[in-house]
Design a protein that fits this description.
By secondary structure, this protein is mainly α. The chain contains five helices and no strands. It has two domains: 1-61, no CATH class; 64-93. The longest helix is centred in the last third of the chain and has 27 residues, at 65-91. The chain is flat and about 50 Å long.
């Protein structure tokens, strides 16, 4: 994770960051009382919500189309199982 955050500041990845943004706005993180740890947590949360982190991870290396389909299918199965587990917990069926 730290290695991935370190790579965000390279010129290659900054291009990726701005491509994913809809309005190409720069991200602004305000640091209060020199609390860098809190600012870094806010930065990571914003990156994760935006989907930039998953975009960078998915483009770290080439993935064959068959592997993409497999990952997409696995994500869908996991999402459905999670939804069923929540429903079972709430409603009992």
């Amino acid at each position: 994770m730290n290695d991935l955050i370190g790579n965000l500041f390279t010129p290659d990845c900054l291009g990726c960051l701005f491509v994913r943004r809809k309005k190409r706005q720069k991200m602004k993180i305000v640091v209060y009382d020199n609390d860098i740890d809190k600012a870094l947590r806010v930065f990571k949360r914003k990156i994760q919500r935006e989907g930039t982190l998953s975009f960078i991870k998915s483009h770290e290396r080439y993935e064959k189309p068959s592997q993409k389909r497999k990952h997409k299918k696995d994500k869908a199965i996991k999402r459905i199982q999670k939804r069923l587990a929540v429903r079972f917990e709430k409603e009992g069926y």
